[in-house]
Design a protein that fits this description.
The protein is α/β, with parallel strands linked by helices and about 230 residues long. It has a single domain, classed as Vaccinia Virus protein VP39 (Rossmann fold, 3-Layer(aba) Sandwich). It has 9 helices and 7 strands. β4, α6 and β5 form a beta-alpha-beta unit. The chain is globular, with a radius of gyration of 16 Å. It starts with a helix and ends with a strand.
């Protein structure tokens, strides 16, 4: 898929994307996902962070709330416009660009993060290499994606086989496959161990058990590396 095709794929999605996170299930998923990202990324006041594939800024705003300065990058102009409108912060800069060719010099950012963008990038190794390139030595790189070992991924694959415009063009990865995208040793963790339709009260209990047992089948897969 070309860069323009990838951008067009998301141009019509801001409203649907935002609406999902206002539903009981979407709100719970967002909370669980952010708790994992927060623990791995640990954004702090004054840090300069790249959010590559920021979409409408769902997680970007959380990073800003931690006091960080953030560059939100996405191929879709409609997505980053929505992020800009929501944030209204001088600490956010948005830019339309490709994660495979980041328009920044080496060692620009304290930290770099990409959340649920890797699914749409066949060359995941190149994407992660770019994130490392623009991160300073000793800085943190965090990448999150939909776990291929999860029931959520199988559901998306089935929707893709039926012609869904978004899920017919995805590349899901397992914890081992995500870790192998770079020779740098890191850690992988998963979250969202409950089904999409699960009652929110019961979902919390399922999530706690999944975390306690260190299950690798949670829908939300995240990896953390420190640039040597």
């Amino acid at each position: 898929m070309t860069e323009s095709e990838n951008a067009q794929l998301f141009d019509d999605w801001p409203d649907r994307y935002e609406k999902w996170f206002t539903t009981p299930s979407g709100s719970l998923v967002k909370r669980v996902e952010w708790e994992l990202i927060l623990d791995l990324l640990r954004p702090g006041p004054g840090e300069f962070i790249l959010d590559a594939g920021c979409g409408t800024g769902v997680f970007t705003l959380d990073m800003l709330s931690c006091g960080a300065r953030v560059v939100g990058l996405d191929l879709s102009l409609s997505m980053i416009r929505r992020a800009r409108q929501k944030a209204r912060s001088s600490r956010l800069q948005v830019i339309s660009a490709d994660i495979l060719n980041l328009p920044f010099p080496e060692n620009t950012f304290h930290k770099a993060v990409s959340i649920t963008a890797l699914e749409f990038i066949p060359d995941g190794q190149k994407a992660v290499k770019e994130l490392f390139r623009v991160t300073r030595k000793g800085g943190t790189v965090v990448v999150a994606t939909l776990n291929s070992l999860s029931p959520w991924a199988e559901r998306r694959r089935e929707e893709g086989r039926k012609g869904h415009p978004l899920f017919s063009k995805v590349f899901f990865r397992s914890p081992g496959e995500l870790a192998a995208l770079t020779p740098v040793k890191g850690e992988t963790r998963t979250a969202v161990h409950f089904p999409k339709e699960e009652n929110p009260d019961r979902a919390w209990e399922i999530e706690k058990r999944g975390n306690l047992n260190n299950l690798n089948t949670g829908a939300f897969l995240a990896a953390r590396w420190v640039k040597p």
